[in-house]
Write a structure and sequence with these properties.
Helix content: 25-40%
CATH superfamily of one domain: ATPase, nucleotide binding domain
CATH class of one domain: Alpha Beta
Length: 405
């Protein structure tokens, strides 16, 4: 999983021993995570949900308030006793940055403590190279940090990076010179990034980060298990089991784009070749339509007409096969689909899924319900930005659900 590079001392990992420092770190994270999940909670409710004594909760909350991480709400008067005072996260308590490196674009976002994007910068390119990305990040960090008051800039706690594994292997699929993409093989991006910023650096697979963003900030918190598809330049995804992103032995679990899709009288192809935005890009080029808005304005595509209609149906048809295959292995409670496109396109793809699933032989498979993702095109960058928050202040979802009644 993600690891930190340099930077200030981190909060001690609560999964270790049981000394008092570790216990305090764990309990503080537990309180912050409960408040984040529920929006606001009074001391009594935190005590009930966490199993901590009211006295312990009072001490923790007082310290977190003094540190600027919690805000005191208006007293809520009940029927008897003293009025309860709900506490909520201070959005300005800490900030983090998230970098998404894609095959056609890169995004850098500044996120506050409650997960709201405060500012973002974006660049597009025919293909990514280390030099292009480093230049973009250096100017982007300056732009994002300077958007905060001087006294708030010191509250930036780290930068998370969401990037595809083995970028050098994608040269042919994105029509990039192999020698340019090969530069990624020997380039230590984490080390290079740590030399141009004063923050700890955390790195995660881009699709795993997007899946994590949906779990934490989107619809995913409602489900125990789900399979997640994100349609970007190339389609990918993630797997959530027991309220936690499952990254697997090598960190590449949920590589759904590599799933074989059988075709009658033809050799099987991978899902990535049938349900990715680069497929739409090629379709537009063949019709003489400028495809650049696909990458420059992912939330506001122009009307691409018939090629877009055809791509949506084809994407839904191949996604249905991938969903059936996934659910034949694990009986997922839900399927969540999101992507680097406008919400209207996402809605059309999800709406097409029931009919496409009906065309398949699903005997022996309990087909799950398919939902739209709620995070949207920025899922990879926001997932990256959440990495420093979890490293320093929050508990992972599975710990929250297991430890709290």
């Amino acid at each position: 999983m993600a690891t930190a590079i340099n930077g200030p001392d981190r909060v001690i990992d609560p999964s270790g021993g049981a000394n008092q420092t570790r216990v305090r770190a764990h309990n503080s994270r537990l309180v912050l995570t409960l408040v984040r999940r529920h929006g606001s909670l009074p001391k009594s409710e935190i005590s009930r949900r966490s199993g901590l004594s009211p006295q312990t909760v009072s001490v923790i909350m007082r310290g977190l308030e003094q540190d600027g991480l919690l805000l005191r709400g208006e007293p809520q008067r009940g029927r008897v006793g003293q009025p309860s005072i709900p506490m909520s996260l201070n959005a300005d308590g800490v900030y983090s940055m998230g970098l998404k490196i894609g095959r056609r674009s890169a995004d850098l976002v500044l996120m506050d403590f409650v997960g709201v994007e405060r500012k973002a910068v974006r660049t597009t390119f025919p293909y990514p190279t280390p030099e292009k990305i480093m230049a973009f990040v250096q100017s982007g960090i300056d732009a994002l940090s300077s958007s905060l008051p001087d006294n708030a800039q010191k509250r930036i706690i780290g930068i998370g990076v969401a990037m595809p594994f083995e970028l050098w292997n994608w040269a042919e699929k994105i029509n990039a010179p192999s020698e340019d993409m090969e530069a990624w093989r020997a380039f230590d991006f984490k080390k290079a990034l740590s030399t141009i910023c004063n923050y700890p650096v955390f790195v995660e697979n881009d699709m795993t980060a997007a899946c994590g963003a949906e779990l934490v900030f989107g619809r995913g918190a409602k489900f125990t298990d789900f399979v997640y598809f994100f349609i970007g330049s190339f389609i990918g995804g993630g797997i959530v089991l027991d309220h936690s992103v499952y990254s697997g032995r090598t960190g590449n679990a949920g590589a759904l784009g590599s799933m074989p899709i059988a075709q009658e009288n033809k050799r099987p192809r991978q899902l990535i070749e049938k349900a990715s935005i680069v497929v739409l890009e090629q379709m537009l080029k063949e019709e003489g339509i400028d495809p650049s808005p696909l990458w420059s304005v992912p939330n506001n595509w122009v009307d691409f007409g018939q090629p877009l209609d055809d791509w949506i149906i084809s994407t839904a048809r191949h996604l249905a096969i991938a969903i059936a295959s996934s659910c034949a292995v694990i009986d997922f409670e839900a399927v969540i689909i999101d992507g680097g496109f406008p919400g209207s396109v996402r809605q059309r793809i999800v709406s097409a899924m029931p009919e496409q699933l009906r065309h398949l032989d699903l005997q022996g498979i309990d087909a799950p319900e398919v939902f739209e993702g709620q995070v949207g095109s920025g899922a990879r960058a926001l997932g990256a930005a959440s990495l420093p928050l979890f490293e320093h202040y929050l508990l992972k979802q599975n710990v929250l659900f297991k430890d709290v009644a």
